[in-house]
Amino acid sequence: MALQEEQVREALKQVIDPELFVNIVDLGLIYVVDVVAVDGDEEKFNVNIEMTMTSPMCPAGPQLVAETKKYAGEMDGVDDVEVKVVMDPSWTQDMMSDDARDQLGIF
Questions:
Q1: pLDDT of 20-77, one tens digit each?
Q2: Which of 3, 59, 62, 93 is the most buried (most CB within 10 A)?
Q3: What is the pTM of this model?
Q4: What's 5-88's CATH class?
Q5: Alpha-carbon gap, residue 33 to 22, rounded angstroms
């Protein structure tokens, strides 16, 4: 079975922002998850991720990128993971899931 974007997003919920204690998916930090079969092989995949930070000078940035690569890379069939940090569009609280809002007490 081919690896799906939703499976990668689910795995990335293991990455917790160390300042907010909410996972990066529910925070809305993951913009793009692109799963590409390697040379047409339906059992090996490259995963390209575009993510952002809550602020351009986020001190947890390197840790979040490293953990994103780690958890995506540990998935069955993943050959390579590329993580690109983008700042456009800028992150806002509107990008958070309802679960994240509840955890942070934002209504």
A1: 999 999 999 999 999 999 987 778 999 999 999 999 888 999 999 999 999 999 999 9
A2: 3
A3: 0.93
A4: alpha beta
A5: 19
**Which of 3, 55, 48 has its CA nearest to residue 29?**
55
If one counts every other C-beta atom within 10 angstroms of the C-beta of residue 72, the result is 27
Let me know if 69 is exposed, middle or buried by CB neighbors in 10 A (0-12, 13-18, 19+): middle
Q: How far is CA 23 from CA 37, 101, 106, in A?
A: 27, 12, 16
Domain boundaries, the chain: 5-88
Tokens of 59: 């001190």
Q: How is residue 96 written in tokens?
A: 């958070």
